[in-house]
Amino acid sequence: MDCIFCKIANKEIPSQVVFENKNILAFKDLNPQAPVHILVIPKNHIPSINEINSKNSSIVAEIFQAINQIVEQENIKESGYRVISNCGEDGCQSVQHLHFHILGGKKLSETLS
């Protein structure tokens, strides 16, 4: 498989890790869109939100628990932040591996278009 996020999760490609446990990796985005821009991924390959099912859905809860820790660690919990997951071509999903963007550290635009 030639998935860049799988390679990052397997430490084949370096990243700036901000959180890691047995199932999840969170790292700084290489092209940040906000002062805080972190990607949170499951270490096991799940292509997108469309492939979440009863066998792997617990990872999403674990990811959101990790997000809660990360935003506190990054000092954006109180000021606010955005969590985004793009899905499919029209949703501009650039890497076919489930991932969530955490954006914060400034007042974000109210529009998403």
Short structural description:
This is Histidine triad (HIT) family protein. This protein has helices spanning 4-9, 58-73; strands at residues 17-20, 24-28, 36-42, 81-84, 100-104.
Lay out the secondary structure.
Elements: H1 4-9, E1 17-20, E2 24-28, E3 36-42, H2 58-73, E4 81-84, E5 100-104
Antiparallel strand pairs: 1-2, 2-3, 3-5, 4-5
The percent of residues in helical segments reads 10-25%
CATH topology: HIT family, subunit A
User: How confident is the prediction overall: mean pLDDT?
Assistant: 96
The N- and C-terminal alpha carbons lie at a distance of 32 Å
Content-based structural category: alpha+beta
SSE succession? HEEEHEE
Number of helices: 2
- Low-confidence spans: pLDDT under 50, at least 5 residues? none
CATH class: Alpha Beta
Total DSSP E strands: 5
Question: What's the CATH superfamily, by name?
Answer: HIT-like
Q: How does the overall form come out from the CA principal axes?
A: globular
Radius of gyration: 14 Å
For the largest beta-sheet, the strand count, sense and barrel status come to: 5 strands, antiparallel
Name the CATH architecture: 2-Layer Sandwich
| Strand residue percentage | 15-25%
Estimate nothing, just give the exact number of structural domains.
1
The strands making up the biggest β-sheet line up spatially as 1-2-3-5-4
